[in-house]
Amino acid sequence: MKIMFNQLDCVIMTIRIFSACVAFTLVMSGCGGCDKINEIQQVAENVQELSKAAENSQEAVNAAEQRRDERRKRGDTLAMPYQELQKYLPSSVDGYTAEDPSGSTMNITGMSYSTAKRDFVRSSEASGETSRISVELFDYNSAFDIYSGLTILWGANFSMEDDEKYTKTFDSGIKDVTGFEEYYKKDKNANVTYAIGGRFILTIKADGEQSGTDFAKGIVKSMNLSELASK
Fold first, then answer.
1. What is the domain partition of the chain in residue ranges?
2. For residue 2, with 0-12 CB atoms within 10 Å meaning exposed, 13-18 middle and 19 or more buried, which class applies?
3. Which helix (H) or strand (E) covers residue 200, if one does?
4. What is the pLDDT averaged over residues 71-77?
5. How far is CA 171 from the centre of its chain?
6. CA 23 from chain center: how many Å?
């Protein structure tokens, strides 16, 4: 984790130095051209936004590490048994048939994690094809570096889009829960991932003619993410 923090510190420092150089260039340019000045001002504003995003990412990592330390102090050092984790999975999804849940727990010196998964399927008589919703919940209680590696950029308000897909972070509306979504335009598949309380990762994958990520996001309404976030 120290390496990760140092990397973030370097990013923030580099952005600030670049921002200062841009500001200096703006001053030295005088009134030699309003268009050029406007361009430099826009670059400066963008750089400031990057700096803020990097700081937000570091704050998110710091908060997650603090929560981990608090769990350690009260003796909560192992991942939740997968049988308990399964209780947080949805029991049903509208229009789909639920399959039996699965899961596993792994404990080894210095590391502990659990996973619980449930699939929901729907067959189309017209096309003969089967669509699937997969809901998977991970508990990284004692594998914090894995959790941080997955979520470190989620505080940066990241977004990217091309002809194939769009990818972006989003506000989940739930305390201590952040979201990340992907939508594949041609295949019409949706993936939604939630980072929960500095400990859990929830992934929902939906295929079969999805029009966006809204359906996948709606599945969490039947899940008690607030309770998970408080653990």
1. 2-73, 82-229
2. exposed
3. strand 200-206
4. 62
5. 10
6. 34
